[in-house]
Amino acid sequence: MDRQIKQAIQTHATPFQSNADLKPIIGAIGDANIVLLGEASHGTSEFYSIRAELTKRLIVDKGFEVIAVEGDWPACQKVNHYIKHYNAAPDIKEVLKAFNRWPSWMWANEEMAELFEWIKHYNLAQEKKIGFYGIDVYSLYESMDEIMNYLKETEAKGADLELAKKAFHCLDASNRQEEQYAISAAFFSESCIDEVTKLLASIRSHEGLYNSEQEEDLNLKMNALAAKNAENYYRTMVQHDAESWNIRDRHMVEALEEIRTYYGDETKVIVWEHNTHVGDASATDMNDAGMINVGQLLREQNKKEDVFIVGFGTNKGSVIAAEEWGQNLERKIVPQAVEGSWEHAMHQAGAHNKFLIFTNDNKHLFQQKIGHRAIGVVYNPEFESYGNYVPSVVGNRYDAFIYVDQSHALHPIDVSPLLQR
């Protein structure tokens, strides 16, 4: 099997030396209006810089208008306001201090700062400006703070404010600790599901009353959606790992659709998330565990030609990660991919950077289920072979795959004085 895969890669892969050589992928995307750009880790410089280059090309050449990422809505809104010239922040590094939830390095890094500055400059000449939004589900208390602050300042009738106060007081009983809330809700039935559900429904029914200037109406609705789904996520995570994963990925798809509706149903969107979210879960053993993900849902909900998924991988190098959840980041060595894995096959097919575009003519050659490396924010290289490879049919999981033979660690921007864990 290894020899067959190696030969197929050698026949159909295209070497690349610079990001400019990735132009064929832009061509293969065609008229798709949802492009998902993955990553095999949250701490690899090349994954960020290549996605940034592809994003620029999609914006300039194909009219993409929205970037949605695996990040919190409130923090990403600070960036969105900066690149759209809604505020007078002195520089992007000041704005990136908003990413004060661990792991901050995912978005507070030099690679993203360069992209944000590029978009800000690009937006100067655009009537409809490029937006940057976080669609993850973790911001339970941050989103409630945003809702309360906005309604206190702006709401005349007070109906939504009263519902927000009830939800806030219910959630605040857990001392703003998501883990404590999760335990209380799961084991003692002390949940706030009714309060946050009523709040979201009320805000949606009154959305015509809220100011659209600087997207204040969208911000209110999205924070309410994040709070509702975050409550469900934290309430479920203690007892059901698979279902809490599904709640998170369903939320990201729901959030994405809300943004597309706000911009217009035909809006073209770029999604930046880990391979485990964007690479179609039905082509992996996640499917056997009853888990779905963003890539699978978007493929199921849209026409085949409207969704294009790009996966990423590396053979060896370095990465930013932590030894345990909440600990300080480290620059870790990524060992050579284990024998028999997808990344090992890519390396054996030639020790250089390359990309594959899966087509009807070659997809049948990549139907073997093979281990495909996934590195998280918590990473222990010495135990890699035991839990960092997801069995995948790569030709079905992605529409294209970008491989970096030797990768390098991301360049974080320090926001540690503000870091919340």
TrEMBL record:
Top-level taxon of origin: Bacteria
A GO biological-process term: response to antibiotic
Coiled coil (residue ranges): none
Gene3D superfamilies, per the entry: Biosynthetic Protein domain (1.20.1440.30), EreA-like (biosynthetic domain) (3.40.1660.10), EreA-like, domain 2 (3.30.1870.10)
Family matches, as Pfam families: Erythro_esteras
Cross-referenced InterPro entries: Emycin_Estase, Hydrolase/PRTase-associated, UCP036794_erythomycin
PANTHER family per record: ESTERASE, PUTATIVE (AFU_ORTHOLOGUE AFUA_1G05850)-RELATED
The protein's name: Erythromycin esterase family protein
Source organism phylogeny: Bacteria, Bacillati, Bacillota, Bacilli, Bacillales
